[in-house]
Design goal:
single chain; alpha/beta; Rossmann fold; 7-stranded parallel sheet; 5-stranded parallel sheet; 14 helices; 12 strands; 35% helix; globular
């Protein structure tokens, strides 16, 4: 079994917290610049998730704001400053840290803020956009929460002003994450989902899937308790699957957690018309998510984003009972997943064929799920911006 160090991320977050603690105190004595907004994402090293797309929206549509994005990966920072513009800064210098502390507004997609520490929402608005619907239990609501995590979540609670939630169905989950007040969780779209539709203009060249083919994305979730079974069928036949893909003009793109790409078997890699969609090939899957004709997953919240396209989806919850017991769901899984759940390869191929050839198959279920889980269904970045403006005035 390939093991992902579950404490690795906690250690990284703890390091950011400790390094930022002194500046948390200094922040009490520093004035705020109202028109300055500082964005960041995972561990201050990534340019991704909702922060990325809302940041790009502000650059294009709200020049009245002075915006910056924190990137402590210096190579990536330099690349982005060349490709996007001189908007990216690191936190290595005192000058940059004070620049960030002076911002009246911070926007993040993760539990890491532009500068770590505590009480960062003092005289400042800190918005947590999230990086996906919380289909699984998170934060202080996690099962088997150890004391280190519990302490960390308690300490950072004071860093945030508001959490964005795509639906009231997930709002209680966000509240339980850090034991937030009811009014701290507000309904909003996810800025990244504008990239699902063809009219969205990216700042860079985005990979285009081959025309004239049917493209299927298979994106299973990693499991902390076991390896993820790819094509979890007792009657799995790699040759038969390859023949099916060829006969139906399909290319199946497999996207697994980057830590487990090396664990994909040669048998799977050898399937005809199957490609491995690695992180080195496409860093941000949301950039191309809307190009796929069908989504296959198990427990990944990527399907909540994909619901906005109203395209078909299929689910493979082969270890549902174990996953529910060890991880836990925040909404009724069976009710919230609008697609077939085959248990054999024979059923799997039949369902894929139906989904690709019959637009009405599970169409009503997808519509109902979308209305339930995605309250805001268009112009999501602008809706985020307008909501932030409204809350800044409150």
């Amino acid at each position: 079994m390939l093991v992902l160090n579950k404490n690795r991320y906690l250690k990284l977050r703890g390091t950011l917290f400790i390094k930022g603690a002194l500046f948390s105190l200094l922040g009490f004595f520093i004035g705020r610049v109202k028109q300055r907004i500082v964005f960041n994402s995972e561990f201050n090293t990534e340019f991704n998730h909702n922060s990325k797309y809302l940041f790009l929206h502000f650059i294009k549509n709200h020049p009245e704001f002075d915006v910056r994005f924190v990137i402590n990966n210096l190579e990536l920072k330099e690349q982005l400053n060349q490709e996007v513009g001189p908007y990216f800064i690191d936190t290595y210098s005192l000058k940059n840290r004070f620049y960030i502390l002076k911002a009246k507004t911070w926007v993040t997609s993760s539990l890491e803020t532009p500068i770590g520490g505590f009480l960062q929402n003092y005289n400042r608005f800190v918005f947590h956009l999230g990086h996906g619907a919380p289909l699984k239990r998170i934060g202080r609501a996690e099962k088997y929460l150890n004391w280190k995590k519990a302490l960390y979540y308690r300490l950072i609670k004071s860093n945030f002003s508001y959490f964005f939630s795509t639906s009231e169905a997930f709002s209680e989950t966000w509240r339980a994450c850090l034991n937030l007040k009811k009014e701290q969780v507000v309904i909003a779209g996810q800025a990244r989902n504008e990239a699902l539709f063809s009219g969205y203009v990216h700042y860079n060249d985005v990979m285009q899937l081959a025309k004239g083919k049917r493209h299927v994305l298979y994106a299973p979730t990693w499991r902390p308790f076991d390896d993820t079974a790819i094509f979890p069928f007792l009657d799995f036949d790699a040759d038969r699957l390859g023949q099916f893909l060829q006969q139906n003009n399909c290319i199946l793109h497999l996207r697994v957690h980057p830590n487990f790409e090396s664990g994909i078997s040669d048998k799977v890699k050898g399937i005809k018309n199957l490609t491995i969609l690695s992180r080195s090939c496409i860093t941000d899957i949301n950039e191309i998510l809307g190009q796929f004709d069908l989504l296959i997953t198990d427990y990944s919240s990527i399907y909540v984003d994909y619901l906005l396209t109203q395209k078909p989806m299929l689910f493979l919850p082969y270890d549902y009972s174990i996953y529910k017991n060890k991880i836990g769901f925040t909404i009724p899984y069976q009710q919230a997943t609008p697609g077939p759940k085959p248990k054999t390869q024979k059923q799997f191929l039949q369902e894929v064929e139906c989904l690709l050839n019959d637009d009405k198959y599970y169409a009503q279920e997808r519509k109902d799920a979308n209305n339930w889980l995605n309250v805001v269904q268009n112009q999501q970045a602008q809706q985020n911006a307008e909501l932030i403006f409204q809350l800044l005035k409150s």
